[in-house]
User: Fold this.
Amino acid sequence: MIKLENILVATDFGQASETALTYGRSLARTFGSRLHVIHVTQSALMFSGPEAVGVDFAALQTKLDDEATQHLNSVLGDDDRRELRALPVVRSGTSPAHEIVVYASSAKVDLIVLGTHGRGAMAHLFMGSVAERVVRAAPCPVLTVRHPEHEFVFPDALQVVARQRG
Amino acid sequence: MIKLNNILVATDFSDASESALVYGRTLARTFNARLHVVHVVDNALMFAALDGYTADIATVLSEMADDAEKRILTSLTEDDWREPKTVTDILTGTPADEIARYAKKANIDLIVMGCHGHGFISALLMGRVAEKVVRIAPCPVLTVRTPERDFVKPDTVREAAGVEVTSKA
Assistant:
């Protein structure tokens, strides 16, 4: 049998992430799992540069993290907290995939659910990379969902794009 | 709520695929979904292997398909034949493309696949299939690796360089 005590949904607050949250909730309810919802904020140090002299990075980071926490709390409902023991998690870093994988490992997560952007072949090339990196590096099974569901991206379209790039 | 009426397990008979079958089967029972188990005979590898030989490609392909069919049937349990009965199929072509095509044709709601280890060869040949399916699939994809909880740092450079990244348990 499979073990699903802890399910982690990684969200960037986009539409695909909403779909991911729907799947995460549904699976957590079915298997009686605890729901963890993580958002990774950009490290404030990524904004550093010559024009950022005098910027208080610590304060900026706190602001970014507070906003993310508020956003996460607004996404999670009372049902999530009561029935799924939902746990909002905010981490910051330069690589979302890395933070997601590290959290999954430390929190003994049994399944990661995350959205992948399904808006045409070009979008895949740029935006799908977080999901792909998580798939490659995750310590546990990974469920990738897209929005809208059942949108079929024809493989040939990807090959055309690959040719244009190459 | 989410809809899970048809679940597809794409197998290449590896350990990771066995794990995928366990996950697919459990989810199918839980959601009362029909389980589909398919294997794709990779014809690109076939042609490469047969280059310069006069063997009858069609014969070899059909032998491989027969062999795969037997292996799928032995991997199934008695329970898999309860209603809704498990469907099996052998496809020929480029694995990721065929898996995505089958998923669309059979109205699959979830694809479950094994994602291979981190050795150089397996990452190159096999891991790429799962990654491509994640990119092109018309539905959600669950990737499962074995052994579970084998923690790997997301350091793709070391991975690609074939450096063994093992967790000292």
Residues 149-155 of chain A have pLDDT under 50 and may be disordered. The CA atoms of residues 113 and 143 of chain A lie 5 Å apart. The radius of gyration of chain A is 17 Å. Helices of chain A lie at 15-31, 57-75, 78-83, 96-106, 120-127, 129-137, 155-165.
